[in-house]
């Protein structure tokens, strides 16, 4: 039996915990992550890669629709999702049919416990059907990776850029959902993709070294332990290594 991995987005702690417990006790289902906010949900979905989402509408930092739009804007596939909402938000939830009908599986009204055990197997079957129907196509002309050729293609602002991954020197957050990719030959390209999204596509030798930078460790010249900076081949500006990342870097180099 295939196990469906759910990510829960719900700002009421007691209800969120109850959902987690109930799903984990159900055959063929488990919870791979949970959050109460747009930001936490975005990071959690990137990390856990769930099969399906269980969403309350009103959460900290916005709404579930803000989260879905952020996933879409960053070219991250949106899993099938279920909305659980109160009567006061039900009309708002129905608008999701127009905006997100392809991914929307079901809209459930709170309180759900009176019919939960009956509806969950139906939801699970619908999710499996959606996953089986999926062609797993990437968003049109967005990001593709040819691992055998060590090449990354990124479309951004009506241009498709080709990057030889092994020639990437470092990446730097550019703000507003953008990242600047600096190549060993000096070329610098800013693309409309977050650093988190790009890190999911890149090999392990490109490592996060602080909140704003990731560097190609194969291009490392040396680490200055006096000020915790990284010097890369052919690049004069030192890159700071944040405390949380130093131990990870030392472990990789040991």
TrEMBL record:
The keyword Magnesium does not apply. Keywords: Phosphoprotein. GO terms for biological process: phosphorelay signal transduction system. It holds the Pfam family LytTR. Residues 5-125 form the Response regulatory domain. GO terms for molecular function: DNA binding. It comes from the Bacteria. Gene3D superfamilies: 3.40.50.2300, LytTr DNA-binding domain (2.40.50.1020). The modification 4-aspartylphosphate is found at residue 56. This is Response regulator. It comes from Candidatus Opimibacter skivensis.
